[in-house]
């Protein structure tokens, strides 16, 4: 399916000094004649205004930046250009784009690279083109700086959030169909009646009542207390005066946070006196949306480390310790300089796959430094470490440390007991404890809050410790394998409405309770009922696969649609080809091992399944329809 038309009617980028040109861009979001994945496709050629350098000089320059590419061989400028493009397209953060192809033509070469976000990968193509021209002219290019710009472009796309991307990549690796529903702002995993839709770690299966309940921190805290779980003593206040009174009754130090909130926004821990409480109250107040009532929690601050316990489908799966951002002195650099230096490290590239975010400098950090009688201009002694915040907020540069192996069984049971009370796929439980290896029944332990939409990348890629594959465990809640996420699909290169309806009738005779979706160039159908037809062909396919009761899809993909739009889905259980063109033969390329491929060429018919081929000739006046109808039983 084409999400963005990126065709250039003229060659707009070639300058008089250029030796190469790239033009006629098109982005496919699914399988196409060039690759079985989403792809950016364009033409590559020499301009002939001047001669390029020898091929080896481009290879050497590229391999200086990507040494592992020297292990491969390249026979043309187009080949090294395409291979470089796939490597730069990973954006120095290990994105899962590896496939590429070249198709040499008399006057140009068609290049296709695996792609997800059209605008990012088109910008990557232009960057690589600029790099090749810089090599030709023996000039430098700010490659690292431009890659960082592209990282931000990808991160700002609907695919670029760490949680969304990690789930998307895992789905792709497991063969689980995944696509974005633009109108709804949701991600759909699976097809038809097998589907599940969601936003990040929240899914349609989740109870919206339970999700809302977790945001009402005072009510949720009271509920946990009723169940006998360890929660710190606290009160809900609506004014600064009430906050001061609550703190005196509870006893300093206290923690202050808005009743409705998430991701640590507006939270201040370890408030020691009224002066700090005054600042903490303002911080919590600023985090409350304008139309919401003022309701702020003041509760006893418990000494210990900050941990996140994560449960998936009621089961404990991971634990992470979160430490506030810190810097270590060298005897001559200021804290501000140490922060800038730390933010330049690769680990803090702040991408969807980096373990650390940038250290954020704001009023809260400066106030905490002031409490320590420090400022951004202070110079720390060699090896002197200073924490920059009281709260271990990862989005502000905090450190994540995997703590999963050390969790005491009592603490695992506690997390699971809490999760069992909520109909939520993912539940994050934030706790303060001296050590998770000590039972909550014996140690200094308190539950701070629970989260219905927890981020998961801290577990998948912690700054310290082993990775826990949380995305896989989330998706395995719904699908044991990619097969469990799919409904049967029958794909034709050519079929009339009459033949389509006969095929539907034939299947319904065997499966009368099924809902069958079908699309051809002449219309869209649910069983025999004709539905509205969208001018964008693949939108019809997506709408059918979005149908939550669909048992089977039948789709026609003729040559013109394949070349213009590509396919919406990968993988057919049965493919029927009637005198196919070379382009239409790609339908037989994207099948599973146990799929059935029925092909007619003239009067000759072949049937292929699980590596076996049967061939015969059609009888006089024998319709091709009769041949493939008897094969539909293989997909039912």
UniProtKB/TrEMBL annotation:
Its Gene Ontology cellular component terms are: cytoplasm
Keyword Nucleotide-binding attached: yes
Spell out where the chain crosses the membrane: none
One Gene Ontology term of the biological-process aspect is: SOS response
Q: Which residues form the ATP-grasp domain?
A: 221-479
Q: Has the keyword Nucleotide-binding been applied to this entry?
A: yes
Question: Which keywords does UniProt give here?
Answer: ATP-binding, Nucleotide-binding
Please identify the protein, giving its name as recorded.
Answer: Cyanophycin synthetase
The scientific name of the source species is Desertifilum tharense IPPAS B-1220
């Amino acid at each position: 399916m084409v999400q963005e038309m990126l065709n250039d009617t003229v060659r707009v980028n070639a300058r008089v000094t250029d030796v190469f040109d790239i033009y006629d861009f098109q982005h496919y979001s699914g399988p196409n004649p060039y690759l079985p994945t989403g792809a950016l496709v364009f033409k590559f050629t020499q301009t002939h205004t001047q001669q390029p350098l020898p091929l080896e000089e481009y290879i050497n320059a590229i391999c200086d930046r990507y040494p592992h590419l020297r292990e491969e061989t390249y026979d043309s400028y187009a080949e090294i250009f395409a291979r470089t493009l796939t490597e730069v397209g990973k954006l120095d953060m290990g994105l899962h784009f590896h496939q590429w192809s070249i198709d040499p033509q008399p006057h140009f070469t068609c290049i296709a690279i695996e792609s997800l976000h059209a605008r990012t990968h088109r910008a990557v193509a232009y960057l690589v083109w600029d790099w090749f021209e810089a090599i030709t002219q023996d000039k430098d290019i700010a490659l690292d700086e431009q890659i960082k710009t592209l990282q931000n472009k990808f991160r700002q796309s609907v695919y670029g959030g760490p949680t969304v991307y990690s789930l998307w990549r895992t789905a792709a690796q497991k063969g689980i169909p995944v696509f974005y529903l633009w109108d709804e702002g949701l991600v759909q995993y699976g097809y038809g009646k097998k589907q599940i839709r969601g936003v990040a770690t929240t899914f349609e299966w989740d109870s919206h009542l339970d999700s809302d309940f977790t945001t009402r921190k005072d009510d949720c805290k009271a509920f946990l207390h009723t169940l006998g779980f360890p929660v710190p003593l606290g009160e809900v206040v609506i004014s600064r005066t009430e906050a001061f009174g609550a703190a005196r009754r509870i006893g300093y130090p206290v923690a202050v946070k808005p009743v409705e909130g998430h991701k640590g926004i507006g939270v201040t821990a370890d408030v020691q006196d009224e002066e700090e409480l005054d600042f903490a109250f303002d911080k919590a107040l600023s985090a409350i949306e304008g139309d919401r009532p003022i309701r702020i929690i003041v509760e006893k601050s418990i000494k210990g480390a900050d941990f996140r316990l994560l449960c998936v489908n009621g089961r404990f799966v991971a634990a992470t310790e979160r430490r506030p951002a810190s810097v270590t002195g060298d005897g001559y650099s200021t804290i501000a300089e140490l922060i800038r230096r730390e933010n330049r490290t690769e680990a803090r590239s702040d991408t969807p796959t980096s373990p650390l975010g940038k250290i954020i400098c704001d009023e809260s950090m400066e106030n905490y430094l002031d409490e320590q009688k420090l400022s951004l201009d202070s110079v720390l002694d060699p090896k002197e470490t200073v924490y920059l915040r009281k709260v271990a907020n990862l989005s502000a540069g905090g450190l994540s440390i995997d703590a999963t192996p050390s969790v005491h069984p009592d603490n695992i049971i506690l997390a699971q007991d809490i999760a069992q009370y909520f109909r939520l796929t993912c539940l994050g439980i934030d706790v303060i404890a001296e050590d998770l290896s000590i039972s909550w029944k014996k140690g200094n332990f308190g539950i701070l809050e629970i989260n219905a939409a927890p981020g998961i990348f801290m577990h998948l890629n912690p700054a310290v410790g082993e990775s826990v594959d949380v995305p896989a465990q989330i998706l395995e809640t719904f699908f044991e394998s990619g097969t469990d996420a799919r409904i049967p699909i029958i794909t034709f290169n050519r079929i009339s409405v009459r033949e389509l309806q006969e095929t539907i009738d034939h299947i319904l005779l065997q499966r009368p309770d099924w809902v069958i979706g079908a699309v051809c160039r002449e219309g869209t159908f649910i069983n025999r009922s004709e539905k509205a037809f969208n001018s964008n062909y693949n939108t019809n396919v997506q709408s059918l696969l979005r149908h939550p009761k669909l048992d089977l899809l039948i789709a026609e993909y003729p040559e013109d649609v394949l070349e213009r739009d590509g396919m919406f889905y990968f993988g057919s259980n049965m493919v029927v080809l009637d005198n196919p063109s070379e382009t239409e033969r790609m339908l037989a390329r994207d099948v599973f091992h146990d799929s059935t491929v029925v092909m007619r060429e003239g009067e000759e018919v072949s049937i292929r399944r699980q590596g076996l081929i049967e061939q015969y000739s059609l009888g006089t006046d024998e319709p091709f329809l009769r041949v493939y109808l008897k094969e539909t039983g293989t997909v039912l």
